[in-house]
Amino acid sequence: MVWGHHMFVSGMSPFSALLFSVPTLIITIPATIITLLWIGTVYGAKLRFTTPCLFCLGFISVFVSGGMSGFFLAQPAIDTYLHATYFVVAHFHFVMGVAAIFAIFAGTYFWYPKMFGRMMNETLGKWHFWLTFVGVYCIFMPMHYLGLAGNVRRYAAFTDEYLIPLIPVHKFITIAALVTGGAQLIFLFNVIWSRFRGPKATENPWEATTLEWSTDSPPPFDNFGGRQMVVNHGPDEYGGEGPEGDFIMQVAPPAAQVHRRQG
Question: What is the separation, in whole angstroms, between the first and last Cα of the chain?
Fold first, then answer.
């Protein structure tokens, strides 16, 4: 049975492995560049660990974790063994699934006050984040191990001798998946409860600088309530001492400046 399994895994032709490795390498270059830009954006910043910020950081984390395993799959000799295993399942879900979901959650928590005029509950939001963040790592990190151990995906039953010792890992992943799925009920409750009972949102609850945070939440019919908005500053005036704090909005008077702190 073990021999048959290895024959199955190594059955992919070297040419097919090369075809899979080339797009993987092509994706790696822009992904690495944009990841460095994300890390450079948060490096040295005075982060406020609100729920949207946590999900943004979680997005970077899972994207990098999933992307690192892509380096292995870009090598045809290694991909020949790993391609039909759980290693690919973990890699793909981290990069294309979990990362996208974390970004969606970040956007939902961030734009919720602008859409509905009420804030989502921060305590529930952080519970939702940590349970989801720890949960997805408990689901997909063990899958990398399963793939390295030769666990082929799409098997209905793990009856082969080499698969039986891996069953406890599958049970752990199942429990983690159930807990992580249950944690999404916290988000669902938060969305519904906050729509009617959440605290009223101010124009600029996140102390952002761009135009959409210069009007009511939610915006009036004509977006700015009859006001003519004039942009006097860039969208990224942070990290200094301005009239309203350590930021300056785009519509602030031209004379307003952010004085950069030294040291």
Answer: 65
Residue type, 49: F
Extract the tokens encoding 107: 């956007």
69: enclosing H helix or E strand: helix 51-73
How far apart are the C-alpha atoms of 64 and 103, rounded to whole Å?
14
Domain architecture of the chain: domains with CATH: 2-197 (1.20.210.10), 204-263 (no CATH)
Give the pLDDT of residue 112.
95
For the ranges 2-11, 21-30, 148-157, the lowest mean pLDDT is seen at 2-11
Q: What does the alpha-carbon distance between residue 149 and residue 158 come to, in Å, rounded to a whole number?
A: 13
**For residues 130 and 136, what is the distance between their CA atoms, to the nearest angstrom?**
10
Distance, in Å, from the CA atom of 258 to the CA atom of 237, rounded to the nearest integer, reads: 7
CB 67 within 8 A of CB 35: yes
Work out the number of other CB atoms within 10 angstroms of the CB of residue 90: 24
Tokens matching residue 120: 């989502």
pTM for this prediction: 0.83
pLDDT in tens, 194-242: 999 999 988 889 988 888 888 888 888 888 878 888 888 888 777 666 6
Which amino acid, 169? Answer: V
**Under 8 Å between Cβ of 129 and 82:** no
